[in-house]
Amino acid sequence: MAVPLLQIALDNTSFSDAVRTTRLVYEEIDVIEVGTILCCAEGMSAVRNFKALYPDKIILADIKIADAGNILSRLAFDSGADWTTVICCADIATVKSALREARPRGCDVQIELTGAWTLEQAEQWREAGIKQVVYHRSRDAQAAGQAWGEKDLELIRRLADMGFEITLTGGLVPEDLPLFKGIPIKVFIAGRAIRDAEDPVAAAREFKRVIAQYWG
Ligand code: 5RP
Prior knowledge:
Blueprint: E1 5-10, H1 15-25, E2 31-34, H2 36-42, H3 44-53, E3 58-65, H4 69-78, E4 83-87, H5 92-105, E5 108-113, H6 119-128, E6 132-136, H7 139-143, H8 150-161, E7 165-169, E8 185-190, H9 192-195, H10 200-215
Parallel strand pairs: 1-2, 1-8, 2-3, 3-4, 4-5, 5-6, 6-7, 7-8
Helix pairs in contact: 4-5, 5-6
The structure holds ribulose-5-phosphate.
């Protein structure tokens, strides 16, 4: 089983805040997520600037596309994103149009599983050529008290069995990770657990340590 990557989610409201944390932790992380909040606050210039600063990192523009898959994914990819996200409630035509932009550029589209979705849809995504999904406990669900549980593990295993590469996110802290041991996770995302830590480098290293312990 491959060792999962570590992605930092930059859900800052300004580029300067986002870059301040990234400067500290970039050596510890594999994927830089220009978060939905940062994309709304600063637009695609944040994506452009991160790609220029960190050309060797995978840059994800987390724009959670719901429609106009071609136009929005083109904006993300032309700004330097390697990956972008389409929200799970989007029409399959939106998924396909985003993929059409991704493929010739060697980029990729992830389906963002926040909110309601079905395994029937997941079959459609596979048929359309989607490889990556982001299994996401939303920030608001977490704030309302939703904990990780058996239902999540069952769905994540089903998605892995279907052949998806899985990114896992949603208020993750290192102590959560052992819950997912034995499942092939491609990427773990940490946002607040690294950004808001007193020592972001130590926080990122602790994620890496636990990942290596259970998947290494
Ligand atoms: C919000 C997101 C976040 O980037 C993701 O959930 C990670 O952030 P955190 O670890 O702070 O929950 O996609 O829509």
